[in-house]
Structure prediction request, 214 residues.
Amino acid sequence: MKKILPIFGMIACSYISHAQSLEHAKLSIHKNNIKVWTYQQQSSPVFLYKAETTFNVPLEKAAALILDVDHAVKWVPYVGSVKVLSRDDQKGEFLLYMVLDFPFPLKDRDLVVKGKMSKDAQGMVSIQNKAIEGGYPLNPDYVRIQDYEGDWTFQKLGNHKVKVSTYGYANPEGSIPLSFVNMFVQQQPYQMLQKMKIELSKSGGYKALPEILR
Prediction:
């Protein structure tokens, strides 16, 4: 059974500590029950983001959708393919190879991601990801992304309500105008959570979460 986290958030998705203050962040988008904040660190000109929303579904259903690799390419923006290289459900660890379809005339990207899933004492599910060097052969058809970190959190608000947050940053590499990248950072998480809402509204069951998240 192939079920592990694809990195959703793609070219600009990265891990930002929950403790990090957002007092200097700009609320870039606030509509359809989705909020997207953007902000910068001195170490990078590329925007970082935090996006969040709530869904009227069980936490398990929302997390299961994110973990369904086979289904990811059908609804996650810019995801061309995802391959599970390794996984350990007992430890909550995994390794993925991903190809991202960038709009023409940009060259497509790929990356290798090491991830970790966990659940805290309050029942919050977290998924953290980080790009690594190596792990899969370089392909001259793609630009390899090596500077990426990202996370997702799922907080139960009720039996059929969950708060979903995602934080992100990545260096997309190559010659891409900074203005385009930063515009993408604002729009992509909003589009992703919108599509996630549509997927979660569809009838039908969902796969059980890995043991470490139950």
